[in-house]
Amino acid sequence: MLDRAITHITEIAQIPSFSSYEERLHPYICQVFDEIQAREIDVKGNNLIYKVGDNSNLPTVALTAHLDKINHYGTDYPDPLPVDIIDDQIEGAMDDSAGLGIVVTLAEMTKSRQWPNMLFFFSEMEEKKGLKEHPELLRNNGKGYTNGMGARRIAQQCIAQNTMPDQVITLDTTPLFKGEKGVALYANHWELNDLDPNKKLIERTKKAVNQFLAIDSDIKVDNNTNDYLHYGEVFNQKDDHQTISVALEPSIYPYHQKGERVFIDDIRRCITILESYLNDSIS
C-alpha cells in the first residue's frame, strides 16, 4: 500500500488545486471513489463527501483531508506543479497532498478490510495564508471565502442528513519536527476553538489518544490549527454530542513555501497506524 500512497501523493501534488480552485482535484478524487463504489453525499461548495458501509451495528469513522494548496507561484504557475522523489522524501506541494494521498489509499483499502462504516471528507479553503496575504490569487479576490469554511460546510451537511460520525481523523502535515522525521497527533481541539467540551467528549478523546499511543508510542501528542478544530467544534455543538476529532500528521519541512518535503517513512507510519486503529475500532 505504500507504493500506492506514493503514487497518489505525487499525482495529487501536480494538480494546481489552489484555494478556491479545489474543483481541479475533483476528477482525481472522484475516480478513486467511483472504483470502490462509494456513495457520494451532496454538499455545498468545492467539497466532497463519500460514504462506504452502512451497518447500524458498527461505529462510523470519518477520514478527512483538505483539497486546497497554497499558491506559491502567482498567476504564472506551472501546470503540472513540480514534484520529485529525492532519496527518502517526496518534494512538492505536500500540504496537503500528503494527507490526501493517505486518505485515498485507505479508501481503496476498504475493499479488502473489515472496518467500521467510513466517511471521507475532502474540504475547501482550509488554508488561510493565501486568503490573508494574497487574496488577489483567489476567485473573486477572496470575497466570500473564509478559512475553514469547507470543514464547516461538510460537518453541517452531515448533521442535517443525520450522518454523524463517531470519530473524525484529519490527515494534514505538521511543522513541529523542523525537518526531522515524525508523526504528530493533535487531540484537544477545544483548547484552540470556541467549544466548551462536555466530560464525555474529553474522556472519549483521551481514550482515543491512548489507543493511538498503544499502536505507536513514538507519536508526538501536541496541538495546532487546521480543519480538525472546525470538525470538533461543529459536530459537538449540542451538549449530548461526543464526536471525537483528532488529527494525525506526518512531518513537513519547509512549511508553507515551495519545495515542501515529507518523509516516505512517515507516510508509511501513518498508514500503518490508521490501519491498526481502524481494525481495533470494531474489535
* The first-level CATH class name: Alpha Beta
Low-confidence stretches at least 5 residues in length (pLDDT < 50)? none
Q: What is the β-strand count? A: 11
Indicate the CATH topology: Aminopeptidase
Beta content comes to: 15-25%
Q: What's the structural domain tally?
A: 1
Number of helices: 8
Give the termini distance in whole angstroms.
Answer: 23 Å
User: Helices and strands, in N-to-C order?
Assistant: HHEEEEEHEHHEEHEHEEH
What composes the largest sheet?
8 strands, mixed
**Mean pLDDT across every amino acid position:** 97
Instruction: Spell out the CATH superfamily.
Output: Zn peptidases
Strand order of the largest sheet: 1-2-6-3-7-10-8-9
Could you describe the 3D structure shown?
This protein has about 280 residues and is an alpha/beta fold. The chain has a single domain (about 1-280), classed as Zn peptidases (Aminopeptidase), CATH 3.40.630. The protein has helices at about 1-15, 25-35, 95-110, 130-135, 150-160, 200-215, 225-235, 265-280; strands at about 40, 50, 60-65, 85, 90, 115-125, 165-170, 185, 220, 245-250, 260-265. An 8-stranded mixed beta sheet has the order 1-2-6-3-7-10-8-9, with helices on both faces. β8, α6 and β9 (about 220) form a beta-alpha-beta unit. α5 packs parallel to α7. The longest helix is centred in the last third of the chain and has 17 residues, at about 200-215. It is globular and about 50 Å long. The relative contact order is 0.19. The mean pLDDT is about 95.
